[in-house]
Amino acid sequence: MPTAMEDDAKDSLFREPAEAHKTRQPLAERMRPCTIMEVLGQQHVLGSDSLLPNLIKENRVGNLILAGPPGSGKTTLATVIAAESGCKLLRVNAVTSNVAELRETLKLSRYHGSANCLLFVDEIHRFNKAQQDLLLPDVESGDA
Hints:
Elements: H1 4-13, H2 15-24, H3 27-30, H4 43-46, H5 51-57, H6 74-84, E1 88-93, H7 99-112, E2 117-122, H8 129-141
Parallel strand pairs: 1-2
């Protein structure tokens, strides 16, 4: 029979590492916006009465191209859009991915359906011709 001390250790075994991990994250990661209203700037696009928040609420975002310098919030915005629209976020980094990984990600995207899944391709301009050709039919059909 476990002692009270063992019970306490067991209860805190899984709770403390998650909390400790969160406090070890960089400040920028801990302060990252979690909702569309926490994203600052571009009020004509992000304001509560503007188009994007309404599309997110209705889960009708569609394809977006987010452009900007590093650190401007492109990945954060994609993460927030997925979270607020209740979609699964599938991330692909064009620098490190290959055709097999992209093919598997597109397969997952089709499985979940475009209404339940958001495909985020970071550094998309780095895709080679084979990757671009593989991505095109799913983007055109709305499956990705």
